[in-house]
Amino acid sequence: MSSIALRLAGADDAEVVATLIEALLRELGEGAAPDPGGLRATTAAALGAEAYAIFLAESGGEPVGVMTLEAGLAIYAEGPIGTLRELWVDPRFRSSGLGAQFIARAREHARGQGWRRIEVTAPEDPSWIRTVDFYRAVGFRDAGPKLALPV
């Protein structure tokens, strides 16, 4: 496998990001097949939004992962926080350390934004245990019904 590069997505990446998010939604089995047109329009809006950051992972120029972060403010956290909205890694690259690379980039981005922590929602359901275990392994802690990563 060639090396993996992570980068901040730009406006020209809307199609690629939407395709990766579509793969995530199909894998999660989110009911009906996602509307590609709606995903593309939302992706384009997200890429232009100040409160949203989208990172792409590429191997040999091929997109192999995506992570989206949204800025927010929480009184309970006493300031700005980030929410990890989507994280998807191509099955061929799972267990390669790419997920941990994404989380390291999320932490770096969070520090630059002055966020106090990053939150992610991952249910305590047996079908999600591998996902929850991953988040805990990279430093997230239980924070009520969510997991939170101190920055």
Please outline what is shown here.
The protein is 34% helix and 32% strand. The protein is an alpha+beta fold.
Provide a descriptive summary of the structure in words:
This protein is α+β, with helices and mostly antiparallel strands and 151 residues long. The protein has a domain at 4-8 and 51-150: Gcn5-related N-acetyltransferase (GNAT) (Aminopeptidase), CATH 3.40.630. 34% of the residues lie in helices and 32% in strands. It has helices at 14-28, 36-47, 98-113, 129-137, and strands spanning 4-8, 52-59, 62-74, 79-89, 117-120, 141-143, 146-150. The termini are far apart. The mean pLDDT is 91.
- Residue windows where pLDDT falls under 50 for at least 5 positions: none
Strand content: 25-35%
Q: Which structural class fits the helix and strand makeup?
A: alpha+beta
Q: Over the alpha carbons, how many angstroms does the gyration radius reach?
A: 15 Å
CATH class placement of one domain: Alpha Beta
- Provide a count of the helices: 4
CATH architecture identity of one domain: 3-Layer(aba) Sandwich
Percentage of residues assigned to helices:
25-40%
**CATH level 3 topology of one domain:** Aminopeptidase
- Total strands: the figure is 7
The name of the CATH superfamily of one domain reads Gcn5-related N-acetyltransferase (GNAT)
Mean pLDDT, rounded to whole units? 91
| Lateral strand order in the biggest sheet | 1-2-3-4-5-7-6
Order of helices and strands: EHHEEEHEHEE
Question: What characterizes the major β-sheet?
Answer: 7 strands, mixed
Straight-line distance between termini = 31 Å
Which term fits the overall shape?
Answer: globular
